[in-house]
Amino acid sequence: MEKLIKSWENLPLTKEELERRREKLERLFEEFLTTLGFDWKNDPNMVDTPRRVAKMFLEFTEGNFTPMPPVTVFDLSSMEVDEVVEKVPVFVGPIEIKSLCSHHFLPIIGNVYFEYIPEDKVLGLSKIPRIIKWLARRPIIQELFTKQVVKTFLDLLPTVKGIAIYVKAKHMCMTVRGVNESNAYMVTEAFYGLYEESEDLRANFLRKIKE
Ligand SMILES: [Zn+2]
């Protein structure tokens, strides 16, 4: 038994609208370079930079204007299995994310570890990384992103018994400028359902994260 939940609220942009935005971004970045004092039109290494940068930012933010990847939900209740164990946590990770920080628009690069305890429904395994990567493809605040992942999976699996998430990422706005801490990571975690009550479940999840 298989059910498809198709889309997210945001509509995909038409090709024409995407092209209109790309061109506008290109013009704006030309002005940006000129304002910074660069004669970019006469520099062979910079003459195509506005085009490249426009494309790059659309790539970094594509989660914002593309629908959520289709999700496959499998119904376990139709399968004949004797209930000998109650909880089977499903762990996935590391899932690589490449994002942008909302504050500086500089890259965030990190890993996400995700675990959930199904009730009667499970997700297609590869869909979990796909959704997490899609959520990361927009400017984020790591604290909110962590909550957003939990919320998204909770919407997809309303009967889920528990969700755990751990995010470890380097923020370029901290490593290449400002405080210049190249080795510092930001770590966030969140627990929902059974994980909130059980220290054993939390410890079991965190033990699987070897980094
Ligand atoms: Zn930042």
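^ zinc ion complex. The beta strands are 2-5, 71-75, 90-101, 107-117, 121-123, 139-140, 162-171, 186-193. Confidence is low (pLDDT under 50) at residues 1-9.
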